[in-house]
Write a structure and sequence with these properties.
3% of the residues lie in helices and 43% in strands. The protein is flat and about 110 Å long. Strands 4, 7, 8, 10, 13, 18 and 19 form a seven-stranded mixed sheet that branches. It has a five-stranded antiparallel sheet with strand order 1-2-6-5-3, with no helix packed on it. Strands 44, 45, 47, 48 and 49 form a five-stranded antiparallel sheet that branches. By secondary structure, it is an all-beta fold. The chain is built from three helices and 63 strands.
Length: 960
């Protein structure tokens, strides 16, 4: 049931009642001091008639009966959308004792709510009140108990179930002994959980105060940190750590710690003073979304109570297995043991999302020695990328003192992975590979089978927990299919597989988010294609020219020739560039002789500045009969080598770089660089290139350095191979590239003519009246050439590029380009004198100098108001406005009469323009004021770079 807030009269009565109770020293919480701990769980509707806006909740509270007979039979819930369940409308469904002393009870409440829209909502519970004498807050009995859960309602999430905190929220600790607590959290959707501590909270005034709220605060609690709250390790006089094997390892006599780790494990090393302590922690739920950042879709705040006792009991020690992985469908069985230093019996328990079913945990010996068995056969539904966490707890049994029990606990992680796909097979179909495999056992909706290929056989690490295929194995993903598919055809993206190569395949299964997870990779299946495919060996530049360049293209003949049905031949395609689009290739050259494997391309080639890429198709008949379907095999494309050269006259070097896109390997053998010396090219260096190119800086030699003013020409020779073990040197030349090592241009020095603002300010009364729309400014700049960066820098300037920025904070942009003979410029038509300038020299080849110095100018601060104006409507001097002014952003003006009464105020017009009207409106169009003297106060913000603000005071005479 969802009830709206009571009417206004009722709310006022409630507020008055709270005030009266408080004035008597009887805060509402004074009647109910009993709540120890609790949390709220939420999940979206999973019924057959699913409504994504319908949310089911489960709340668990822990109640004390020490010094109180209050019982939380019903509760009030605030849903976070301005609605409430109604006062005490949610009834308790169960109440069970916790522990052996009968002082604590676990209570469960179920409720649901349907929201009006999608969004993020926080569900609140306020309990009245906390249990008495909590040590780490002030007067806990008079502070309300508060917990909340936040859930995101979004249909795209499909199902959203908040984390379930399986372990109890109330625990005991011993003085000067390590305290451990873990929520044993699980998430049914496989979302990732993140833990952090947060202060315990209260809502002042409790439920009654919230029910009186109106407007935006309607039925919305505003929690605050509990008064006097501190974290437990700060209570007492210098609490210290004790020895503990960790994590974290205890450092005896170091300051006490209280912390939570990534597994949700709370460690308090170590309590000093006895009593009850309350802390809170947040469990965040993060949904991993393919192709996007993880999204937080839920927050659970649990408030936990710890009772520290003064006893001589010693903690037991629990031993659990190492974290592990298990293949879905494989039974896992582990032994958990515990020991007690006083040889007391120990109770072992386990918590987690898979307990008490389908996993089974059975204690077989109370001890000593103490033993228990954990067994579980995970199914395909349990596969996920995050491990399942099981919390094992050991609680000792002190004789005749159940209130002195102490615990040890450890979290164990089990990652469930998918089984490997079975019986992967591969067969040749034409020049394609036909893959098939057995039906996969885990048919999880949305799962994908990923297919990988490698040339030659490869090993995958044999780690039992290794899922997928690591990049280091050398496989490349070539496709994916749904988990129900049992075959795949590999045609190498339409190119077909190459004869003479061995192709090996593996597959594995990737499971869908949010749980995710993967399977072990399949065994390898390999296919060797008999024979040899046609493939390029040369794309070498024979002649460098802008219109009649020449390239020789060569390739290997496919084999065995006897296997091909006539007619056979080649189609050779050409495109400009090294990574052309599929549609960029020219019409093919058709070669009908299978033995003709060379083509000299010399029609309309610009080998001076362009690289060219070639694509080859080998065609043959599929059958010996005429008219049979034609088979086409496509060789991997290959480009020419393109060389670029960049001169640096300052360093007297030429930086060379070259690129290519070829199917062979140019990294195994060095690339040779040639430079023209006299009438011939001589080798000057050898370098090892990369898969796509190489670089080299020519510095000349000590005896023969490069000379400024000289033109140098180069080409490079690459040496590639398909197989380093074979002597198949694939020699290819780049085009020739010539570059002039020209002297660097001298750097200009710019001067921006300044304005003498001080002189103008001293002559304000002599300055002409500023135009109504503001002054129009001109900035004058000039420049000369310096002797930098070198004394012999070039002064052969063809043009100057002048740059401008409106303010010093703006980027310089090209203002204009001027002839090399012009060394000054007047920048006219400016609404502001503010601006920055720089200039750059350019020579006839397009080479540029360094940018000059950057010079900036600012507006002056000029403002002069007249002492008289005549608002008589004759169009002359009708408004009160500045006579002289520089650019202004804003002016706030106040006008006072001779008795100090403000008659006008406005900040709407930077130029004021008061027409002598009274205060009827800010436009000054109210009743006219009488003739006489008035006083003004003007706060002016100028338009200069610093936004200077100044105040001007004075008087003005009105004559009509």
């Amino acid at each position: 049931m969802n009830l709206q807030l009571p009417n206004r009269a009722v709310r006022l009565v409630l507020a008055l009642a709270i005030l009266v109770l408080t004035s008597w020293g009887l805060a509402p919480g004074a009647f109910a001091t009993h709540l120890r701990a609790g949390d709220i769980q939420a999940k979206t509707d999973t019924t057959a008639a699913r409504n994504p806006r319908r949310i089911f909740f489960k709340m668990v509270l822990y109640q004390s009966n020490v010094n109180t007979n209050v019982d939380e039979e019903a509760v009030t819930i605030f849903y976070g959308d301005g609605k409430t369940s109604g006062r005490n409308a949610i009834r308790r469904v169960s109440k069970t004792p916790v522990g052996c002393d009968g002082t604590t009870f676990r209570m469960v409440y179920y409720f649901e709510h349907t929201y009006d829209a999608t969004g993020t909502y926080t569900v609140h519970y306020i309990g009245e009140n906390r249990s008495r004498d909590v040590r780490n807050m002030a007067e806990s009995a008079n502070q309300s108990f508060y917990i909340s859960t936040t859930i995101v309602i979004d249909p795209t999430l499909v199902v959203n179930r908040s984390p379930v905190l399986n372990a109890p929220a109330y625990d005991r600790a011993g003085r000067n002994q390590v305290f451990l607590q873990n929520p044993g959290a699980s998430d049914a959707d496989g979302d990732s959980l993140v833990y952090r501590l947060t202060p315990s909270q209260q809502v002042p005034g409790g439920v009654d105060a919230v029910l009186t709220q109106t407007g935006a605060n309607l039925n919305t609690p505003r929690p605050q940190v509990c008064t006097g709250y501190v974290t437990p390790e700060r209570v007492g006089s210098s609490p210290r750590q004790v020895a503990y094997e960790g994590p974290p390892v205890g450092v005896p006599n170091a300051p006490a710690i209280f912390q939570i780790d990534s597994r949700g494990q709370i460690v308090w090393n170590a309590p000093l003073e006895v009593g009850d302590y309350n802390i809170a922690y947040v469990v965040e739920e993060w949904r991993r979304i393919p192709g996007a950042r993880a999204r937080r879709i839920g927050i659970v705040i649990r408030d936990l109570q710890i009772t520290v006792g003064a006893n001589n009991n010693l903690r037991p020690t629990i031993r659990i297995p190492n974290d592990t992985c298990v293949i879905a469908g494989t039974p896992i069985r582990r032994i958990i043991t515990a020991t007690d230093p006083e040889n007391q019996g120990v109770t072992l328990t386990a918590f987690g999302g898979i307990l008490p079913r389908p996993a089974i945990f059975t204690q077989t010996q109370v001890g000593p020695p103490t033993r228990a068995t954990f067994s579980w056969t995970p199914t395909c539904e349990n596969i996920q990328s995050d491990p399942h966490q099981i919390l094992f707890r050991a609680e000792d049994r002190p004789l005749n003192n159940c209130g002195a029990t102490l615990i040890d606990e450890r979290a164990w992680r089990v990652t469930v992975i998918g089984p490997a796909p079975q019986n992967l097979r591969v067969a040749q179909t034409g020049n394609n590979a036909q893959l098939s495999w057995d039906s996969y056992i885990c048919q999880v909706p949305g799962a994908q089978i990923l297919i990988f290929r490698k040339e030659g056989s490869g090993n995958v690490p044999t780690d039992a927990c290794q899922t997928g295929i690591p990049a280091s194995a050398g496989y490349t993903q070539i496709g994916s299919v749904s988990v129900g598919t049992r075959n795949y055809i590999d045609d190498r993206n339409g190119l077909g597989l190459e004869r003479g190569k061995t192709y090996c395949y593996r597959i594995y299964v990737q499971f869908p988010r949010p749980a995710g997870g993967a399977s072990i990779a399949s065994q390898e299946a390999c296919l060797t294609l008999v024979g040899r495919s046609a493939r390029f060996t040369n794309v070498t530049v024979d002649r460098t020219a802008a219109t009649n360049g020449q390239i020789t293209v060569r390739w290997t003949r496919p084999a065995p020739v006897s296997n091909f049905n006539a007619p056979t031949g080649y189609r050779l395609y050409r495109a400009v560039g090294q990574n052309p689009a599929a549609t960029a290739y020219d019409a093919p050259r058709v070669i009908n002789n299978i033995n003709d494997t060379t083509f000299i391309d010399n029609v309309g080639l610009n080998t001076l500045t362009n690289a060219y890429t070639y694509k080859l198709e080998f065609f043959s008949n599929s059958l010996p009969t005429p008219g049979a379907p034609v088979l086409v095999e496509i060789a991997a494309p290959a480009s020419s080598v393109l060389l670029n050269a960049t001169p640096d006259p300052l360093l007297k070097t030429v930086a060379l770089s070259w690129t290519y896109n070829v199917p062979w390997d140019n990294t195994r053998r060095p690339t040779t660089i040639y430079r023209q010396v006299g009438s011939q090219f001589l080798p000057i260096a050898k370098v090892t290139g990369t898969a796509t190119g190489g670089t080299y800086v020519d510095r000349g030699t000590t005896a023969n350095p490069l000379v400024v003013g000289t033109t140098y020409c180069y080409y490079v020779k690459t040496n590639g191979t398909y197989n380093p073990a074979l002597p198949d040197s694939l020699i290819n030349l780049s085009q020739q590239r010539c570059v002039a090592l020209q002297p660097v241009l001298c750097t200009p020095v710019l001067t921006l003519k300044p304005t003498n603002c001080d002189s103008l300010a001293s002559r304000l009364f002599d300055l002409p009246t500023t135009p109504a729309n503001g002054e129009i400014y001109t900035n004058n700049v000039s420049w000369t050439l310096s002797n930098q960066p070198t004394a012999d820098c070039s002064r052969n300037v063809a043009s100057y590029v002048l740059y401008y920025a409106p303010t010093a904070a703006d980027s310089l942009r090209v203002l204009t380009t001027l002839p090399g003979t012009q060394t000054s410029y007047a920048h006219t038509g400016l609404r502001s004198a503010q601006g920055c300038y720089a200039v750059q020299a350019v020579d006839a080849t397009g080479a540029t100098s360094a940018l000059s110095n950057k010079e900036c100018k600012d507006d002056c601060l000029l403002f002069l108001l007249p002492n008289i104006f005549t608002p008589n409507g004759d169009g002359k001097n009708d408004t009160f406005r500045p006579k002289v002014f520089s650019p202004i952003k804003r002016t706030k003006v106040q006008i006072f009469n001779r008795w100090g009464v403000k008659i006008y105020e406005s900040d709407k017009d930077p130029l004021i323009n008061w027409n002598g009207g009274g205060s009827a409106s800010e436009s000054g169009s109210g009743p006219r004021v009488s003739e006489g003297m008035y006083y003004y106060l003007a706060d002016v913000e100028f338009g200069d770079a610093g936004g200077t603000k100044r105040t001007f005071k004075g008087w003005v005479q009105i004559n009509r």
